[in-house]
Amino acid sequence: MNCYLEAVKDENDKLVWHNELGEYLQKCLFEIKPKLTFSFLNFGGAITELSFLHPKTNQKLDIILGYHNYRDYFNNNCYFGALIGRFANRIANSCFNFQGKSVKLTANSGAHHIHGGSHGLSFSFWNIEIIKSSSTDFIAELTYQDKQKPNSYLGDVDFTVRYHLLCHLDDDKYQLKVSFNALPHQPGILNLTLHPYFNLAGHDRKTLDNHSFQIFGDKIAENNQAHLPTGKTIDVTGTSMDLRQAKTYKHIKDNKQGLVDELDGFDFHYFIGEARINKKMAVVEESSVGLKMEISSTLPGIQFYNALNLDVANGKNNTHYSPRKSFCLEPQFAPASIFKNGIDYPSIVFSRDKPYNHTITYDFSFT
Fold it and tell me: What is the spatial distance between Cα 107 and Cα 114, in angstroms, rounded to a whole number?
């Protein structure tokens, strides 16, 4: 077993510095040879590898997309593996009203604001402490104090995230639990998630056709033509968005209709259940390698995105990542929660008296 936190070096054996922020890149690695490798960075908390030894082929299977050169994470506009916040998803016109005041944010997606902006949690340096490491258990804690900035969210927030990996080596089962805690110094909005891109057949595979997707939601959030939330919901019954019964990606492609046909894929928020109650949200299986991933969370919904706009030439091992060959499943609050509350849109306002506490759990097993 190996477990360490080390500085990342470039090809000239020099520290990889972020000149603007004045800090250097570190990588935390947990490894149980030859069964498992898990690594992430102090920048954005970005997960850079999750690899398993296939129990039948004895081949290494790395299911997380990422960059070949670690320095490219400084410009991680795809949000590969990154922590997302203060507010996941899109905010129209980079502006919202809060307690009678208009809050203006920095635009980073045309005129709009996405995933906390260019100075959000994905583009910040986190402190890392390894809490526990053994042949069955790994816990690392990441902390960051986000100070109020011009054209940004209100007040300071203390963030703590834990990556907890449980390994059942005898039956090749693994669990990654991500715990989010945020303590605002004054009331404000929060919507946090994690943004890994997966291909369960391997990060460098060029198809999702052998994946089956099951998402336990009967409604999605309606978006307008600019992919911005309207505050309304759409019943998925009888549509290509209805994944309550598992469907292969090939079947979805061959029978797509409506919004899935218009987008040529998925970028939808599914409503799953109540906040604060842990529940199974989605199951994905890849038949060619026999790997299954189950996602559960205390968050009320999940965003399903099949990498519609991904086009990255400098992926890991110099892989070219093209659209619709990977996917993200991101538990979170619905984006329209920012202006509409109710059964479908629970409050996303948190404070010292109501801190943010939610979990996302990924369970992996070979079939």
Answer: 8
What global pTM score does this model have? 0.97
**pLDDT tier, 190 (very low <50, low <70, confident <90, very high otherwise):** very high
pLDDT, one tens digit per residue, over 309-348 is 999 999 999 999 999 999 999 999 998 888 777 767 788 9
AA identity, residue 120: G
Please state the φ and ψ torsions of residue 26, each to the nearest 5 degrees. Answer: -130, 150
Per-residue pLDDT tens over the stretch 249-295: 999 999 999 999 998 999 999 999 999 999 999 999 999 999 999 99
CA–CA distance, 159 with 182 (Å, rounded to integer):
5
The CA angle 125-175-73, to the nearest 5 degrees, is: 25
- For 249, the enclosing helix (H) or strand (E) is helix 249-254
For 71, phi then psi, to 5°, come to -60, -25
Q: Residue 244 corresponds to which tokens in the numbers above?
A: 């309550």
Which residues is 28 bridged to in the sheet? 5, 40
C-alpha pair distances (Å), 198 with each of 8, 40, 168, 338: 24, 15, 21, 28
Instruction: For residue 82, give the H/E element and its range.
Output: strand 82-84
For each of the domains in the chain, give its residue range(s) and CATH number, in order of start.
2-366 (2.70.98.10)
Contacts of 276 (CB under 8 A, 6+ apart): 298, 358
Token reading at 265: 């894929």
- Residue 235 host element (H or E): strand 229-235
Q: What is the reported pLDDT for 336?
A: 82
Query: Please, what's the b/e burial string for 226-255 (b: 16 or more CB within 10 A of its CB; e: otherwise)?
Result: ebbbebebbebeeebbebeeebbbeebbee
Q: Are 18 and 8 in contact (CB under 8 A)?
A: no
3-state per-residue secondary structure call for 150-210: CCCCCCCEEEEEEEEEEEEHHHCEEEEEEEEEEEECCCEECECEEECCECCCCCCCCCCCC
